[in-house]
Design brief:
With 953 residues, this protein is of the alpha/beta class. The protein has 35 helices and 28 strands. Bound molecules: iron/sulfur cluster (SF4).
């Protein structure tokens, strides 16, 4: 069973042995050329010129004579066009860039697929206008008008970008394909090769097809397919969809080459393993087993359709496996150095945000960001002695300081005892503008590099991969510096961080290894044209194989179909070919899948596996398929996929609306309990079912008691109240309670049964309270109630945060009184009060633990009151429990048991800003809480599929 590339090499040698220099070989990727050269070297008997080798992208770039642009620079060009088109209405660069990336992806496809541009853009804007049309004649809102204008202007972006590039003999990739395809008759005349050999292709785009067909027609090309009868001769097998058509369209009488490898013996093992760690461990064991049985891993491929498993897989390869080669690139974004540099950028970016939000305050660093930095595994490497438990003690120090913001001087002072210069100055430069921060980060990389080189010298660490990370990030930072100098729009740290993240997602780190020997580790696309005796594939899950996600696009699905652009179906067909082709010459196949659901897959094996199980043995009984599960699969019906709401433009708009309306303490408590719950209940306002009440519920009872208290005490505001006053109130309580219930229920409905009992409970609560209020006063002592159900509000101005320039806060305080000269903020609760939960030990606890929600509410009330009455410099805040009034209101105590005074309230405000920064941060999505005990009383349990019945409390 000769491998495809070996067969191709022999064929080429037989036909072109003397004139190899006259041909050009075009392959789906560059790597295949390495193997052909290796095969040629083995069979060439004399010194000879080699053919020219190209990947299809390089071939097009070479033959079109155009320089292919950097997509990032294209995004800046599109942003410049955006500012020209939109003028004052232009979005910020951070808002526009994601759209620019969608545009580029669409423009690439439009050109690669030779779509009629005018027709498509006109159709698109008409389709959007139709969708926006209001049959009732209602005029379009400003938002709708802007939306439509954007779709109408897509054409301008397309032609604007193309015009700018063509003036410089440049093109984005799709543009180069279109230009070459449209000019193929002329341009191919001057090519130096006698023949162009296309080998190993499957799904050609229309532009590629046009190029190949023209060359075939003029006798300048030969095409070699890597096909198998198993999928090409079966008219419904999707893996052969494209090849069946090409066999007809390209006029091959007998396509070269269609083999029948699936007629050979094959052992296929399907293994369901719980979790990724299980897959990695099992794959490691399989490698050892292969090594023992076959003596080497020379023809073994370890295929990772999920790139995120690459680093953990490298750590799971047994030492005995010897040399291995990694072909797949790893996005720099998936390396630990990325998270360290990103953490440093977040520190400065958030400090910039904070100083914009709070004008006049000293620049300060957010404690959570500092914690992220000191907890990072690489951070400890900066300390003088890496064996010290640097992060542990620093983390303790930051946590115990109970501060939310640290001025630069303070944090530098703290760090000084742990890490030496120049690392500190590189982490906290004195002027943290974009260019300075980049220079400092480069300095930081130099410090790491020197440290790693020293560690390598003493033989204690290998650190080869880490040094490679440093090298790649140093280049990336240099590129960023050039961009900052070229594009004035990168003028904030936020923009810088966005570009840094984008670049880190695009750039890939290539691992070095022995390319042609030993175990080959690769992604799915890297397997093209290659063959192995043994294939071990991980993550063969539905949702990963084929991938569930398509790139974002402005073009709707039905339009894509209409214009022949690729859809997810196309994608599935392409992946089907990769899957079946890879298996066609392999004798031993191990398909591992994760039986537990995750963000990328729901714990099911890929549809390709099921199809193979069904069709394979029918085609050839020599295909033996075994299946085993290493644990029980997840219970049916239980979905364990995380729900994450990214803060895209529409979500930010909702947030903006909410900020304008005003955040109540309850909103913040919901956010602390679970950001997703906040999104569902406060932003999109998913309603709880509103059943008709037959019996009085706790909420109505609470409202009635509050109202009765407002009416009874409300007639005595600002007047002295003594023991006697409360005895008088008790006498009118009965009538007032009944009057209040009468607003909600007919008299008959509350005069018997359960409702009758509830009315009496409410009455008893009220009378008991008046008794206790009288008892709380000494003889002759007086108190003054100054307000009941007092609605207070305030606002905080912030700058430049996603069009949210002001955040309003609102709250209604049940009672404000004054006793012994002290102002008291009091909240009535019909439920119980746990005194310990009104005494948070730290600010962090108050702002992260929902058990302290009542304390947070009281602090908010105190803060709102202080904002409206700055003359009051100290006050008290507490809860009166109507169920058990006890010996007085239960008072709230800020951390360290300090009084609620101006200083404490300012500290509270700083922490509140920290929470707000998180809520409005577009990079922090609304995610589900990780603490499932918080879901117990949540109305969205069904949406989230949280089974909480077996929780113990
Ligand atoms: S059920 Fe749990 S995870 Fe879902 S919204 Fe409610 S609290 Fe959040």
């Amino acid at each position: 069973m000769p491998a495809f590339l070996e067969k191709l090499t022999k064929h080429i040698y037989t036909n072109w042995g003397d004139r190899l220099g006259d041909i050009c070989i075009v392959l789906p990727n560059r790597r295949a050329a390495l193997f052909i050269k290796d095969h040629l070297a083995k069979i060439l008997k004399k010194t000879s010129f080699l053919p020219e080798f190209y990947s299809i992208e390089d071939f097009v770039a070479h033959c079109s004579g155009l320089t292919i642009t950097d997509p990032l620079r294209d995004q800046f060009t599109l942003y410049a066009l955006h500012r020209d088109i939109e003028g004052d209405q232009a979005r910020s660069i951070e808002e526009f860039f994601p759209y620019a990336s969608w545009m580029l992806s669409d423009f690439n496809e439009i050109d690669m697929y030779l779509v009629g541009r005018e027709q498509l853009f006109n159709y698109l804007s008409d389709a959007k206008a139709m969708a926006m049309w209001n049959p009732d004649g209602r005029p379009l809102s400003d938002f709708e008008k802007r939306y439509l204008r954007f779709f109408r202007s897509l054409k301008q972006y397309y032609y604007g970008l193309n015009e700018m590039l063509s003036g410089k003999d440049m093109a984005y990739q799709g543009g180069a394909f279109r230009q070459l395809a449209e000019d193929i008759e002329n341009s191919s005349e001057a090519w130096p090769w006698e023949k162009v050999i296309f080998a190993g292709f499957n799904a050609l785009t229309p532009s590629e097809e046009k190029i190949v067909k023209h060359l075939l027609k003029t006798g300048r090309a030969e095409v070699y397919w890597d096909a198998d009868k198993y999928y090409t001769d079966n008219p419904v097998q999707e893996a052969g969809t494209f090849l069946r058509r090409y066999f007809k369209d390209f006029g091959d009488t007998e396509p070269l080459w269609k083999e029948d490898n699936y007629a050979q013996q094959k052992e296929v093992h399907i293994i369901g393993v719980p979790k990724n760690t299980g897959q990695l461990k099992y794959a490691g064991e399989l490698l050892l087993k292969q090594l023992k049985e076959k003596g080497s891993l020379d023809s073994t491929a370890l295929v990772l359709p999920d790139e995120s498993l690459l680093l953990p897989m490298l750590n799971s390869i047994p030492e005995e496996a010897g040399k291995f080669n990694v072909t797949m690139g790893l996005a720099l974004k998936n390396t630990p150095l990325f998270s360290l540099l990103d953490a440093v950028l977040s520190i400065h970016h958030n400090a910039e945000r904070f100083s914009q939000m709070r004008e006049g305050r000293q620049r300060a660093y957010y404690s959570k960001d500092l914690l992220d930095l000191v907890k990072h595994p690489w951070f400890g490497m900066l300390s003088a002695d890496i064996s010290e438990k640097t992060h542990g003690s620093l983390e303790d120090m930051i946590r115990k300081s109970n501060r939310i913001f640290f001025p630069a001087t303070d944090i530098v002072e703290i760090l000084k005892t742990y890490i030496p210069e120049p690392a500190i100055s590189n982490l906290f430069p004195s002027d943290p503008g974009p260019l300075n921060v980049l220079a400092s980060l480069s300095g930081l990389l130099t410090t790491f590099r020197q440290k790693f080189i020293d560690l390598r010298k003493d033989g204690s660490h290998d650190l080869g991969v880490e040094l490679e990370y440093l090298f790649r990030f140093s280049n990336l930072l240099q590129r960023l510096q050039e961009l900052v100098q070229t594009y004035k729009s990168i003028d904030t740290l936020r923009t810088l961080q966005m570009i840094f993240r984008q670049l880190s997602g695009q750039e890939r780190i290539a691992f070095r290894g022995e390319p042609l020997q030993g175990l080959q580790i690769m992604g799915m696309l890297e397997t093209r044209t290659l063959d192995f005796d043994t294939v071990i594939m991980l993550s063969a899950n539905e949702g990963i194989l084929p991938a569930a996600k398509m790139p974002n696009s402005f073009i709707p699905y039905d339009m894509k179909q209409e214009f022949g652009l690729p859809t997810y179906r196309h994608n599935n067909t392409v992946f089907a070919y990769h899957f079946y082709r890879l298996l066609q010459r392999a004798g031993d196949v191990y398909l591992l899948y994760n039986t537990e659901g995750g963000p990328l897959g729901g714990g099911e094996k890929s549809r390709f596996i099921t199809q193979l199980q069904h069709e394979g043995p029918k085609y050839n009984p020599g295909i033996h398929i075994t299946e085993k599960l290493l644990s029980m699969p997840p219970q049916p019906g239980i979905r364990d996929t995380a729900i994450v709401i990214n803060k895209d433009e529409s979500v930010l708009r909702l947030l903006q609306k909410e900020a304008k309306k005003g955040f109540h303490p309850s909103s913040l408590n919901i956010y602390i309990n679970c950001p997703l719950q906040f999104y569902l209940s406060r932003l999109i306002r998913v309603e709880e079912s509103d059943d008709i009440e037959e019996t009085i519920d706790a909420r109505t009872m609470g409202i009635v008691i509050h109202e009765a208290l407002r009416v009874i005490i409300g007639g005595h505001l600002h007047r002295p109240l003594d023991k006697g006053s409360f005895q008088q109130f008790k006498k009118i309580a009965d009538a007032e309670i009944k009057r209040q219930f009468g607003k909600y229920y007919h008299e008959d409905d509350i005069s018997y049964g359960k409702n009758y009992l509830i009315v009496n409970v409410a009455l008893n609560m009220l009378k008991q309270l008046f008794d206790r209020e009288a008892a709380w006063l000494d003889d002759g002592e007086e108190l003054f109630v100054t307000a009941l159900e007092e609605g207070l509000s305030t606002s905080v101005q912030i700058k430049g945060e996603n069009n949210i320039s002001q955040i309003n806060f609102k709250g209604t305080i049940d009672r404000i009184d004054s006793k012994a000269g002290k102002v008291r903020i009091l909240d009535y609760k019909t439920g119980g009060v746990v005194a310990a939960k009104l005494k948070p030990e730290t600010w962090e606890v108050l702002f992260t633990d929902p058990e302290y929600s009542q304390a947070l509410q009281l602090m908010m009330y105190a803060w709102l009151f202080h904002k409206n009455h700055t003359e009051v410099s100290e006050l008290e805040a507490g809860i009166i429990s109507l169920r058990a009034p006890g010996r007085g209101p239960v008072m709230m105590h800020p951390p360290d048991r300090r009084p609620v005074d101006t200083e404490v309230l300012e500290e509270f405000e700083d922490h509140l800003m920290g929470l707000l920064m998180e809520i409005v941060d577009p990079d922090i999505p609304f995610a589900q809480t990780e603490d499932e005990s918080r879901c117990k009383y949540c109305s969205f349990k069904t949406i989230c599929n949280k089974t909480v019945s077996n929780f113990s409390y």
